[in-house]
Amino acid sequence: MKVLIIDDERLARKELINLLQDYSQIEVVGEATNADEAIELVNTLSPDLLFLDIQMPGKTGFEMLEMLDNVPQVIFTTAYDEFALKAFEVNALDYLLKPIQTERLNESINKLTLKSKTVSSDLINSKKLCLEDQVFVKDGDKCWFVSLSNIRLFESDGNYIKVFFDNNRPMIHKSLNALDEKLDPRSFFRASRKHIVNLSWVEGIEPWFNGGLMVKLRGGDKVEVSRRQAAKFKEMMSL
Questions:
Q1: How far apart, in Å, are the Cα atoms of 54 and each of 14, 60, 144, 170?
Q2: pLDDT digits over 14-41, tens only?
Q3: How many independent structural domains does the chain possess?
Q4: Which residue of 59, 115, 157, 230 sits 20 to 30 Å from the alpha carbon of 208, by its own alpha carbon?
Q5: Same domain for 95 and 157
Q6: 169, 163 contact by CB (below 8 A)
Q7: pTM check: above 0.85
Q8: Which domain, by its residues, includes 101?
């Protein structure tokens, strides 16, 4: 597991590196002192895991994550317990309080090791986001790390996209066309100008007006597939 440590405090970085030497599955491939350095290293080194400080000069850890197209696993490191708990909701995410305790670090590493997975080389080379990938979603003061397998639907709303997962509907500032180019077409389908659906969530299909289709997703959401996309959709969903 390739690890990148991002913290503006040199002693904090060195302390964490020393602690991580006890884990044979961990390889520290780089250090960054701020968000701009970190973004460059993430794009160059493609780490599996970030140890990320929240408060740094310039951009915060949260702002840095918003600038990444593909977010690795992240463990936040912070000296501010109340700040961390208030700033984000924990989903597929962990945080460590400074000074980092060995027992707490071990718990985090074990948790992330269990979640580690092997992604086929063709998906890596295509740089498309697949169901196993995680994305960082921020809406106001709330943040989530969400597996794409849990996102059932993307819906365009002006210059924003509404992201449907669990009982959440956060809005992100992105175009549906830009998102469509990032997603693996084997797992996500552009149903119309307004919607992208996760094919693994499709529960039922029925004919609709003007040669279109109405798709029902697990959980009850219904999405209309345009006539233009209907034939392609039926081909993808058939044996």
A1: 17, 5, 15, 22
A2: 999 999 998 988 999 999 999 999 999 9
A3: 2
A4: 157
A5: no
A6: yes
A7: no
A8: 2-116
